[in-house]
Amino acid sequence: MDTAAATAAGEEITARPAVAAKLPSAAGRLRRRAGALSRPRLDPYWTAALFFVLFTVVSVARWRSMATMSWDLGIFEQAIRGYAHLRAPIVDLKGPGTNILGDHFSPVLMLLAPFYRLFPSPVTLLVAQSALFALSTLPVTRVAAHVLGRGRGLAVGFAYGLSWGLQKAADFDFHEIAFAVPLIAFSLEAVVRRRWTAAVGWAAPLVLVKEDLGVTAAAIGVVVLVRARRAVPPAIGLVAFGVTAAAVTLGLIIPAFNGSGSYDYWAKLGDDGPSAAIPLDTAVRTLLWILLPTSGLLALRSPLLLVALPTVGWRLISHDPHYWGTDWHYNAVLMPVVMLALVDALPEARTAARPWLRSYAHHLPVAVLAAALALSTALPLGRLTEPATYRVPRAVPAVTRLLARIPDGATVEADLRSISRLAGRTRVLWTGDTRGIDPDYVTVQLHDGRTPEQTLAEVTARHPRAAYAPLGAATDLVVFKKTTAR
User: Fold this and answer.
1) What is the C-alpha separation between 68 and 72, in angstroms, rounded?
2) How many CB atoms lie within 10 A of CB 266?
3) Nearest of 439, 423, 433 to residue 124 by alpha carbon
4) CA-closest candidate to residue 289, choices 177, 168, 195
5) In this predicted model, what pLDDT tens digit does every residue of 361-408 receive, in sequence order?
6) Which of 105, 155, 213, 324 has the fewest C-beta atoms under 10 angstroms from its C-beta?
7) Considering the entire predicted model, what is its pTM?
8) Which of 179, 172, 171 is nearest to 109 (CA)?
9) What does the mean pLDDT of the chain come to?
């Protein structure tokens, strides 16, 4: 062996102990990092991150499939698009020139305007909604672990994230109540921890989310007073503020922006209307769905459940059947109320004199999680186990190419199928509610065996002053273009 080779071999032999010495320290660092990630204080954060991913995948997958459930995604995109460009939140889908503040009072939507300006897409709204729903799991998991211990706290946090009301809302396009869910969750966490000022601070912004939520904020103030058993000035102020804000919003602000000078949704309350009588069995079934799988009825033992009364109350006096179903987003704001009422009721139940109640309370967190997992097989998150969820249907690319032939800025009369693909770049009007405007284009989803020729005759009948011709068709969607004005 020459001198250079011997020197290299010696250096290698000398280096090996140094490398070996470094391995334990590297392994130690990995163990420390793994230990840091497994710390109980981080449980609520990774739980929220997990549900953010799950909710996002569910909602975006529906959008990619063009399986939109309602016109709400288009409505809110039009409103936020207005805010993003420093204009009034005009929602032409509710009627040409309609200001959204005359329909629902939700100025909180302004918070999404900067994000939409950077990423002008309905997906931005869906991702934001998923983030808000996932954020609400943080206070629920955190306070549940604080009260019940880490294991049972995680069980409650996961049961909440999997709750059917949240899943249905995450699967339902977009709605402003996404902001209310975390506000209620953080506020009630503070109530459970007896932090009265924080509870009031989280509840007060509810008046900016939706006009009826001022009463919910007032209900949280009442709960603080009940729990504190003394006069808490911020809570008294919240009660007065919430009721006053709801009254002013319903009586003055919304009518001022509404073209008819009133609040349109009064018509859905009372005894009038085609479906005035909501069947008793429907109401009872929905109430059981709200209480039984989420709390095993134990939430009835907590005063926190009073916060649910305003939402349940206006549904009781409504004759709209959609309000009393278990679909869409109408039950999302009740999920944090019921879950945190359960957390609030469990400690007292676990020390009750009756042995059966102690045993029931001891096992209930795990039982609630098991129920949520079982129900999820038939709920939106259950679709994440199906390969079809991640595939774009064959018809979608053809429909997308057809809609791309409509130029930016055009006025379009559209029905449900194409709204969320057009609202961000055109002026979209709802089918049959153009109020004398002859749109540049009309998109129609064919159904009930109707042919393009029959549909063209209907379009011509709606717009007798203009002439239309087919622009193209893709699967069940046909687009007509205005050729001349008569």
Assistant:
1) 9
2) 10
3) 423
4) 168
5) 999 999 999 999 999 999 999 999 999 999 999 999 999 999 999 999
6) 324
7) 0.90
8) 179
9) 90
